Amino acid sequence: MTQIRIKDQQESSPMLAKVLRELVETVLLAFAIFVSVNIITARFRIEGNSMLNSFQDGQYIVVNRLAYRFHTPERGDVVVFIPSVNTTTTFWENILGRPGQTDYIKRIVATPGDIVEITSGQLYVNGIQKYEPYLREPMMITETQQWQLEADQYMVLGDNRNFSKDSRTSHIGPVTIEQILGKVSAVYFPLRDAHIVKRYIYQN
User: Fold this and answer.
1) pLDDT, tens digit, for every residue of 96-115?
2) 180 beta partners
3) Domain annotation covers residue 27
């Protein structure tokens, strides 16, 4: 009986080691997938109505973090950005988010070097009036505003223009590529709202 018990113990040891090895490999694989997915993409919940009717409060979106590693942002792109000029983040903050950080979602309407003017409730880029069918309603008429974008600046505005804090306000202003976290690529929740987000291409 003693010999049989010793044999059973010897047979169970390799089995236990195999199970532990497979468990460790599974955990490491899951961790690697988690890190990879979060390096490439980010998920955000929209809070507020500044992008109505294009995006609704409470929707969840996917942001492509690597979109602008291959080309520069374009007019019509919808992006998520950090409004603060202090964009220094750690590796884990890039993946999990910075505590207390509020990220904004807006549409790029002008790119570096552009001259932007808002007058009589209309948007002009380089002297050309822009047709904006995505606007929730016409802009309220305010005093004329004008910007000359520098080599690294982008003008970002909300689609619900009358209820949006964006590049028109002095504490945000035009944003730099360093502030842009990525390009919005899809809405994934609620499922009834799920769709791929396409860049609006201006006709003029």
Assistant:
1) 555 445 789 999 999 999 99
2) 81
3) no
Answer yes or no: is 53 within a domain.
yes
Of 178, 130, 195, 190, the residue nearest 157 (C-alpha): 130
Identify whether the C-beta of residue 116 lies closer than 8 Å to the C-beta of residue 147: yes
Three-state secondary structure string covering the chain: CHHHHHHHHHHHHHHHHHHHHHHHHHHHHHHHHHHHHHHHEEEEECCCCCCCCCCCCCCEEEEECCHHHHCCCCCCCEEEECCCCCCCCCHHHHHHCCCCCCCEEEEEEECCCCEEEEECCEEEECCEECCCCCCCCCCCCCCCEEEECCCCEEEEECCCHHHCCCCCCCCCCCEEHHHEEEEEEEEEECHHHCEECCCCCCCC
Selection from 40, 46, 39, 76 nearest residue 61 by Cα? 46
CB atoms within 10 A of CB 85: 11
Full residue range of the structural domain in which residue 101 is found: 44-196
Q: How many domains does the chain have?
A: 1
Tell me, yes or no, whether 92 lies in a domain. yes
In a domain, 8, yes or no: no
From 30-39, 54-63, 147-156, 187-196, the region with the lowest mean pLDDT: 30-39
Q: 27-48 pLDDT, tens per residue?
A: 777 666 555 556 678 889 999 9
Which amino acid would we find at residue 117? Answer: E
Tell me the CATH number at 95: 2.10.109.10
